[in-house]
Amino acid sequence: MNRWNAMSFEGKDAILGVVRREAGEFFELVDSDEVWEAPTGAGHWQVRDVVAHIADTTEAYFVAFDAARSHTEVPPAYGLPGMAERVDRQALALRDVPRTELVERLRGDFDKIMEIFDALGPEDWTGLNVPHFYMGPLPAFFFPAFQLMDYGVHSWDVRQGTGRAHGLTGEAADLLVPFMFVLWQYTTKVQEPCDLGIRITSGPNAGDTRVRVGPEGMTYESGDPGDTVIEFDPGSFVLTAFGRSNSGTIRGERAVADRYLNLFFRI
User: Fold this and answer.
1) How far does Cα 150 stand from its chain's mean position?
2) Does the predicted model carry a pTM greater than 0.90?
3) Which domains can be identified in the chain, with CATH numbers?
């Protein structure tokens, strides 16, 4: 089993280790007055807004895991189409919280959520369904991946705001590769028929995936990619799926690839 596929319990140690490292680097990036109101690669957000967003998101996970453990009924999922607007409101509502207070709050949130993740056993990892506020019930393993997205991609955002050249670390990008297909599934805005391949060119999750979009949404499976293929290295794939860059090497019909890449809304 691939220990770099966190959708299996064999990937637990790998993803939790990388989340800890990415979070440590994130706190080093954001915990100073000099950068607190600096721009980022996340739209109009400043560094302080990114910190607020991750705190708000992590604290929602505590509610979700409590509900899953206690079998408490929760409201229907909010849905991803309205996620960007809502998380923006939630983050900006904390804009005036002092840096030391907000960073300390997030550090405490991080320690608490990692304790929850550390305690997940093999059955919990894939069998405990946890209600995500925007997406609805998901297997528990998605939540460490969400934390990796927060600390990995938002660290990229903070670095992007400096104007210096930079990139994603290989381990973070490799672990996020399988989750980007799920992200695309949940953010398909136009169900226009499209059939093509996605090729990840390196890393432990390298390979070809056939993707089809139709009236029922998006499906994907490993195998023959077809005549039109978009090739990505892991980092470019993650940043493209998150709308941070327009990357990829098109082999085949440009019109098919262009149509596919514009089927999704951003979160």
Assistant:
1) 6
2) yes
3) 9-166 (1.20.120.450), 172-261 (3.30.1050.10)
